[in-house]
Amino acid sequence: MRRSNQGFTLIEIMIVIAIIGLVVTLSLPSITEYVKKTHRTQIAGLLSEQAQSLERFHSKGGVYSNAPGLSAGNDDYSITPVLADQSFTLTATPKSESMMAGDKCGEFTLSHTGAMGNNNLADGVTSKDCWGR
Predict the structure, then answer these.
(1) Which residues are CB-neighbours of 64 under 8 A, at least 6 positions away?
(2) Is the pTM of this model over 0.70?
(3) CB burial class (10 A; 0-12, 13-18, 19+) of residue 105?
(4) Neighbouring residues of 116: CB distance < 8 A, sequence distance ≥ 6
(5) Which of 20, 43, 18 lies closest to 98, judged by CA?
(6) β-bridge partners, 109
(7) Using CB atoms within 10 A of its CB, is residue 34 exposed (0-12), middle (13-18) or buried (19+)?
């Protein structure tokens, strides 16, 4: 008796492709949210580093204004500092061309008092959710 190799049928291949498509479709939103959470953690860390740099400058010169070397942000957020002699506020705004545009956490803010906040939060989201604390 001779045995022949028949391979896979078209139906079998289509079923495998459909299963792979279903798995990707169901997992994509959670993967995207995980990546966004990583970007939020990164900008929170960068804001904290900038605040520490401003505090070092203040301890040497007595003012926050005219502090050199502040970061403009990263690929996903732009940082805007508002510096006065005795106060500062750092605001990280999602860039419109990045995946963080329209993110549920909106803009991140950090002040000289250590107050962490967010502007333009989505409904049901708190600053604590966004800062990871």
Answers:
(1) 54, 57, 58, 83, 84, 85, 86, 87, 88, 112
(2) yes
(3) buried
(4) 44, 108, 109, 110, 127, 131, 133
(5) 43
(6) 91, 117
(7) exposed
With 0-12 / 13-18 / 19 or more C-beta atoms within 10 angstroms meaning exposed / middle / buried, residue 40 is buried
Q: How far apart are CA 102 and CA 107, in angstroms?
A: 10
What are the backbone dihedrals phi and psi of residue 77, each rounded to the nearest 5 degrees, phi first?
-135, 145
DSSP letter at 46?
A: H
pLDDT average, residue stretch 44-50:
95
The CB density around residue 111, as the number of other CB atoms within 10 Å, is 15
Strand-pair partners of 111: 89
What phi-psi label fits residue 22: left (phi over 0), alpha (psi between -120 and 50 degrees) or beta? Answer: alpha
Nearest partner of 46 among 86, 92, 5, judged by Cα: 92
pLDDT at residue 49, rounded to an integer: 95
Model confidence at 113: pLDDT above 80: yes
